[in-house]
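user:
I keep going back and forth on a fold encoding question. Separate attempts, laid side by side, tell us more than any discussion would. Would you put together a sequence-and-structure record for a protein of your own picking? Write it directly below this note and I will take it from there.

assistant:
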Amino acid sequence: MKKFPLLISLFISLSSQAQLVRIHKLNDCSQYAIEQTKKTIEKYFGLQVLISEKNYITDGSFDGIDCLDLNESLFGYRNFQFKKSKPIDIFLTTSKITSIERQTNLGDEETTIKKVNVNGVSFGNSVYVKTLDISKLKCTLIHELSHSFGAEHCQNICIMNIQYTLKQREKIWDYVHDKPIFCKNCRITSKIK
């Protein structure tokens, strides 16, 4: 009879453990960008963060490569599903990063695929962020990490609205309280503190 409360407390303890986040350099990312990334994740998500000493790509071969292809070459898989049991790997770079944009016109069976330059992209437990513009780093990082936890793009005045993230950051950031603005649904999904 006494084992039951012990099992419940063990389950609660294990399920409440924080997700581990590892920060990696893809190339010439600055130490300042790495520290800002660590502070942002700890402050807004309350997650445990480790900074990796490994520099994945040291030459210029990464510039302009599609992140999905890179994810496959680094880890051997293309995975879009977030797994809480695995660490989140955040890759920082000053190089140009691209992602695939798919557009299907209504009534068409043909899908147009093109590569677009992005500030960040998330594939399940892998997040890629361009750090060249430090002023965009916080917004991009929170936006992409929220994707990992299941938040989708939305049309509200919210950090998950891609139009505001790209062009009007002042509408999605509370500068007085130094925190992102989320709509109710995205706040719940993103697991932001």
Q: What stands out?
A: The beta strands are 20-25, 48-55, 88-93, 97-104, 111-118, 120-123, 126-130, 173-174, 179-180.
